[in-house]
Each structure stands twice: as structure tokens, then as C-alpha cells.
Amino acid sequence: MTYKNVIYLVLLVAFFSCKSQMIKEETPIKAKNVILLIGDGTGLSQVSSAFYFKKTSPNYARFKYIGLINTSSSREDITDSSAGGTAFASGVKTYNGAVGVADDSTEVKNIVEIASLQHIKTGLVSTSSIQHATPASFYAHVTNRGLYEDIAADMVGSDIDFFAGGGTKFFNKRKDGKNLLEALKMKGFGIDTMALGDFAEIKQQSKMAYLLAEEHMDPMAKGRGDFLPKATELGIQFLTKDVANSDFFIMIEGSQVDWGGHDNNADYLISELIDFDDAIGKALDFAEKDGNTLVIVTADHETGGFTLSSTVKKTEDGESYSDYNEITGTFSTNGHSATLIPVFAYGPGAEAFSGVYENTEIFHKILEATNWDKRN
Ligand code: MG
Ligand code: ZN
Hints:
Blueprint: H1 3-26, E1 33-39, H2 44-53, E2 65-70, H3 81-90, H4 111-117, E3 121-129, H5 133-136, H6 148-157, E4 162-166, H7 169-172, H8 180-186, E5 189-192, H9 199-202, E6 207-211, H10 227-239, E7 248-254, H11 257-262, H12 266-290, E8 293-298, E9 302-303, E10 307-314, E11 320-330, E12 336-337, E13 341-346, E14 355-358, H13 361-370
Parallel strand pairs: 1-7, 1-8, 2-14, 3-4, 3-7, 4-6, 5-6
Antiparallel strand pairs: 2-13, 8-13, 9-12, 10-11
Bound molecules: magnesium ion and zinc ion.
């Protein structure tokens, strides 16, 4: 080999190794599955409470990629859960009260509809009724969140494969006299209104619904137990049961952190937050083993203007002081607040969730990570 040929060879090798590296960079790894966990009303102080009041290490501490979202709705500085849920599910800003419709009341496509077209399995878990604003945003299209019976009818028309929560009465005690539980069965749903089962009991079903309360699930303090983390695990197991068709999207909602905030009840809020953190743990455990699952944890808005304050005490002389060794959860409102909301992400595509952006970007970033809207 001549000296010239050696130079050519070196250049050739350098060119191809460069090119293969370029190709690698242009083809980012896509997520097969997405687990979106929404802690309703969960701002940074709510998240922080797990670091002081949970007896084990919080699962929130397992994330490396963290961002912040602005949650304002199309007409209001301070959003409600329906506009907030629609922002995540459909990527549009709409007015407070709107579920799955834009500001001009036209229907908008949600991520469940987009994923279902690609035969991606979909699931919803909530500790409220399954027709409540947050879960409803992922399958219903109504101009007012209070239209629970219409929302229940939209569930029958949706492609959801698994759901768990409350809300039986909106299916079977309706003004129109219809029993939509029968309609769900016709669609292939197995329905259990008693308790979460074991995977072995339900794996033969093509779809599965758990409706475990007439309306909302009980608060933790009234004995809800491990419903949320267990339904998270069971839902993932169910959606991945067919090896040849195991890609999925699931939305898990810790609904009642919000209600603790509205009640200005720190014990209620913190017990619901810790339960939600347990569900985050189940999602992360699966994602770590799976390697193809993007986990996103965020909230629609903050509720209560919650703060982990130092406890105000009085000295023997009657002078008040702040005890920095004791936290008291305090509130500034019975409603929602406009504070920016943290976003935690893990898995393929997680880096994209860093930064400061609008709540609607969650939808677009999920599609960017999965390509669910671009597949044939
Ligand atoms: Mg909610
Ligand atoms: Zn609320």
C-alpha cells in the first residue's frame, strides 16, 4: 500500500465513523410507553411535604430532569382542573370549565385518541370519579365540566382499555335511564365494582374497568388504603399483557391533594400527597426495569397557597416567635393559585422536560418523545 493510499484509507474510515455518529444523533431514542402522573393541586410546597412528612425517601427525589410550567388558562390567570387537564391532554389553552374543547368550544383531539389510532393501549386511574375534570380531559369533549352524565357517555365512545376510580352512578343512575355499564360490557369491558383484583383474574379480559365508588373514592384518612399505587401497578400490567402489542399511555391522578388544599387541611393534603408519591414509585420501578418508558409527574395547578411555615409559638413572657424546628402547613386561599408548577421526568425523552414553559407543551413534548402523531 502506498503512502497516498494509507492517507485515503484513514480519511475514508474517519468519514464513515463521523457519518455513523451523525446518524445516531439524528435518531433520538423514542419512548414506547408514557406514564403521566398528575397530582391535582400539587405545587412545590405540596411536593416538599413528602420530604418532611413521609417516613421513607420520597420517590420525587428519584428524578434528574425537572422543569417548571405556567398553568394559566386561555381566559384566566388561575386555571381550574378542566382547562389544566385539557392543556396536558390536547395541547391547547382553553377556558376554565372546558373539557376537551378549545376556547371557541370546538372539540380538540386528545392524546388518548391520537395514541389509540396507532393501537397504543390507554388507561386512566383517578381517586376522584372517573368523570371528574382531570381524567375526563383525556376522553371527553364537553363545554362544561359539570356535565358528568355526558362525560360518562363519552367514556363509552372512547378507546380507553383500562380505567379505575369512582363514578358508578354516572353510568347506571342516569336521568336518561340508560345503563352504560351494559354498554361498556358490550365494548368488551370486564367491570368490577367491588375491589381491585389480581392480574391473574383479569388478564383474559380485553378491557377492564374498576368502579369502586358511586362518586369519589374515599380519602386516605377514611380508609382508601393502597388503591392508587395498586391500580397503577395493575393498570400497567394489564396494558402490557399482550407481548406483541404492549405499548401504552396511562394517566394516573392523585385527585385529592387538591381537596386537602381547598379544605385548608394540611393532614388531608399531606396524606394524599404521600399516597400519590407511592404511585410515582410504582411507575418509576416499572420504567427502570422496562427502559422504554417515559414517566412525567406534574400538576394542573397549585391549591390553597400552601406553605411549610415555621410554627409560631409564644415564650413564657408571651412574646411570639417562629420555631424553626417545627413545620406547620399553612394556607393563603381556599382556591387555586397561579404559582409555577414543577415537572419531573424520567426515561427516554426526559431531558426535553427541563426548562420553563407553558402547560400545553407537556402534550407536545410527549408526542415529540413518542412520535405517536407521526407514525403510519
Ligand atoms: Mg382532578
Ligand atoms: Zn381544585
